[in-house]
Amino acid sequence: MTQLNRTGCKPPLYFTSITAIHSRRWRVLVPLPLMLAMAVFSLRGQQPQPASPGSTMPTLGPDAVEAADILRLRDALDRLFRLQSGRACSEAPGLEEFQVRQEIGQRVETVALDLDGALGEIASEQSKLSNLRAGLQARRDRTQGYLNAAALITGSGIGIAVNATQLKDSTATAGDILGIASGAASTLLSVIAIKKQNGPSESVGAIPNMLGPLFDREPALHTYYPPEVMAYLQSSVATNPSSSRLAQLKASWMEAGQITGSGDTKGVQKVDRLATSAHPEVKLTISDMTDRLAMLGDVAGRISLMKRDLAALMRAVGTAKCRTAP
């Protein structure tokens, strides 16, 4: 039966069709646009939101701040902390957050490997210097053994002959002369033994000279400090900002007498011996090699502390808190 409108007239055909569709297909046609709208709003809700007033940004320690400045990662850290604090804890990290975290991790890992390379070069130089010093010490000990044996013979052995000549008056004068000669020979041998105590000197040959760049000398072979490691040495410690780490090392070396603070000829020659490589005219004594080994150990110990700062930086990366639900 055809339904009439309020005027009592039969409604138009198109209105009847729309009404029929509305009454019979409402549950099929209408939910589709609603679902699309809900999906759009859902995607919008997944975009990073600004940090809420209750969110906390991690506080970097002085070691982490210095490492971030040397590695030029402050902007990346700020972006990562902003993304982390603007994300709800129930949400998965976004693509941008993963990219920033990977950028920071790769940068830190690259610098750590470069640092290991510098430490490896220092260890290689120390190993070769230790072997060369051991050879020089063996030669010195052997020479001193010969001199001590000769002094014993001239002092005690000839002394017996001197005493024997004193038994007769006819040989007493010859005995006195022999005694004087024996004493002079013993004294001379003792003086020579004292001078030989420093041992022989020898050229170090083709080895790295990791102290060279620290004293503005030309690097040899694979001698190389990465820019980040050199920047770390040239930067100051938070507890003593008045001087750099390198300046503190040089001050300790001057205090120990390993180098001199003056630019005289003697001081320049000592630095040349400490930073030489493959130079046949520059010869090092056992004392020079000992000083060089000790100074290389100081440099290795100081730049190894950079790993502590890198570790502090990586720990700070994981301390940013996500945005908790209100």
What would you call the shape? Answer: rod-shaped
Which strand order spans the largest sheet, edge to edge or round the barrel? 1-2
State Rg: 42 Å
N-to-C SSE string, H for helix and E for strand: HHHHHHHHEEHHH
- The fraction of residues assigned to DSSP E strands is under 5%
Poorly predicted ranges = 1-7, 11-37, 39-56
Mean pLDDT: 77
What is the count of helical runs? 11
What does the main sheet amount to? 2 strands, antiparallel
Task: Give the number of DSSP strands.
Answer: 2
- Measured as a percent range, the helix fraction is 55-70%
Tell me what you see in this structure.
The chain is built from eleven helices and two strands; from the N terminus they run ααααααααββααα. It is mostly helical. Among the domains are: 111-198; 213-317, no CATH class. Strands 1-2 form a two-stranded antiparallel sheet. A hairpin with a 2-residue loop joins strand 1 and strand 2. The longest helix has 71 residues, at 95-165. The protein is rod-shaped, with a radius of gyration of 42 Å. The two termini are 58 Å apart. The model is unreliable at 1-7, 11-37 and 39-56 (pLDDT under 50).
